[in-house]
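Predict the 3D structure for this chain.
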Amino acid sequence: MEPAHPLETRHGNGDHDGVDVTSWVSVCPRGLWRVRRKRIHEQTVSTSGDALSGSSDYCPKLGSLCQVRVLLRAHMEDSGGSVSEKRVTELASTPFLRCQDTVLQTPLGDWTTLRLGEGQCDVTEACLEGMRAGEKCEIQLTPFGIERDVSVSQPSEGNLPLCATVELQVFTQGKESWEMSAGEKWEWIKSHKERGGVRFRSGDVWGAADSYSRALKLLIPLCGLFRDMEKKGEERETKELRDTNTTDETQQFPSVDEFKIIKAELHSNMSLCQLKLNQPERAKASAAKATQLDPGAAKAWYRLGQACQMLNELEEAKGAFVKLLELQPELPPAIKALKDVISKEKERNAQLGLRLSKMFN
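Done. Predicted structure below.
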């Protein structure tokens, strides 16, 4: 089983004078933020004859389209927006880009539609997971780990702590991950991987790491299936899988080797994000997993060497760069990195020799 990723949302319930209060840590484009949520009231929602899971007895699940409105405390009195009467069957995801200068990645003050599980706004999605149709909650956000640091740059939404309300009007039926077929999980994995690449290229490293983490979590329950495929024979097992899952998406289900390569790429991409976020120990672990799954993954070997170099584990770093040069001889970055490691090794050995000579003298 894959270990829990460090960006995984952490929940904790508390009872403050009978008020339902929950706190956790969410991922935003500029880092981690502590979120404190308080439910403030529920309201009755008319389903207008729709057979929807978004009634007061259910909460949104993975893939649910959620009609939601986010208001900052400073704008609440001026909101005055009427509750949308859109039927659940008419909901469609609202396209908008993530940006670096805001914590809440949703259009503020307007009703919009989010697809739960895509990670557009981790703060809002984490709120929606525990809400019912017609419910509203208050949230308070503070940069994680720097609650007392008044020098932290403030978001464009306003002063810290950031206070807002999240209101869920209606939502479509979704599925828990364990309710999904293998093909459905695979489609989500591919979309998370693609979204992670887009976010990384735009400079949203935290968002990219979150996307890769979501993909890896969905891969976990598929590992047993692919181990069985490997034991029984890929062709026979794939035929059985496709016979029992006849939707179009399962026709594109990967082979065992393709699965290993995709999993290795996700770990390698996660390693790159962790290097950028100055998390060398985690980057080393992720890159090592990638090289185990795909020994021919040149990028993973390079990232493993970089992580070991940051940790001053020079022998392991040298081994990783040597392996990379076996795969891609004369690769300039690998040659330079190996020279740097050898130079640092010589410097370290010289310093060690000097200390030993002083000790014995």
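The CA atoms of residues 54 and 171 lie 5 Å apart.
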